Amino acid sequence: MTIKAASSGRIATIDAALVEGRIVAAFDPAAIAAKVMDEKKIVVLKSVFPETLLSELRDAVIAWGREIEPAPIDDFRGNYHRRRAMVSRLQQAPHVFHDYNFNAMPDLPASLADKLYGLFEPLRQLYNALTSNDVEFAIPDSGPYPHPQILHYPNGGGFFGRHWHNLVPQRLGFIVVLSEHGRHFTRGATVFDIDGDIVDMEGQQMLGDICIWRYDHHHWVSQSDLGCKFDWNAVDGRWVATFAYFDPAG
Ligand SMILES: [Fe+2]
Fold first, then answer.
1. pLDDT (tens digit, 9 = 90+) per residue, 52-91?
2. Residue 205 belongs to what domain range?
3. Strands 42-46 and 210-214, bridge-based pairing
4. 201 CA to middle of ligand 1, Å?
5. pTM for the full model?
6. CA–centroid distance, residue 30 to ligand 1 (Å)
7. 3-state SS, one letter per residue, for 2-28
8. Number of structural domains, the chain?
9. Which DSSP string corresponds to 58-120?
10. Which single residue of 17, 46, 170, 245 has CA 20 to 30 Å from 228?
11. Ligand 1 centre and the CA of 161: distance in Å?
12. Which CATH number is 95's domain given?
């Protein structure tokens, strides 16, 4: 297994794999956490999730979204999906994407829940290993909890303007790319501003890779291919999963 510095010098690419439901990487969790938190590198764990797992998950999420009406507001305790074309209230970040939120996975049909756990349970364990935390998929009476989320940036104009998050409690974030660059989408990627260095992940993170980043880097998502016709119902586009750990009352 190898580690190599990508062109920007800010990206550390690390070999990894999913072994019996656990993410195994060439570096131990403390070394990965140090690269992200102390050295402020973007770590990319390569080829963790197999294409079949991701395509079946995508298909199941799309099918579920077609059965359930899009929600007009957020429900941080439930399962819902929402089409967003707006400017965020506090940070004034414009965005166009469709998010699918699974805060109550046990309430979902088992076939969908199983596929979601296949992705998010290994991420939960990785998160705990990297942060020495002990988060669970349960909603506490108070305080932060994980919010498994899948985002669809449709071709033809999906994007997310520059914004940022508090470092605490999340500390580090995950982005997993669920669709294939060059096949499902041709443009659009997360871009980070790390102390003035612009780190564009276009071409640096492929299907199945996990991007790990320090949670207080300013970031945005560059626009998908405007040469395509925009369609909320399209299955193509850039699909990602995130593991957000926050207190909606905080
Ligand atoms: Fe963000």
1. 999 999 999 999 999 999 999 999 999 999 999 999 999 9
2. 3-246
3. antiparallel
4. 14
5. 0.95
6. 24
7. CEEECCCCCEEEEEEEEECCEEEECCC
8. 1
9. HHHHHHHHHHSPPPSS--TTSEEEEEEEEE-TTT--EEEEEEEEES-GGGS-HHHHHHHHHHH
10. 46
11. 9
12. 2.60.120.620
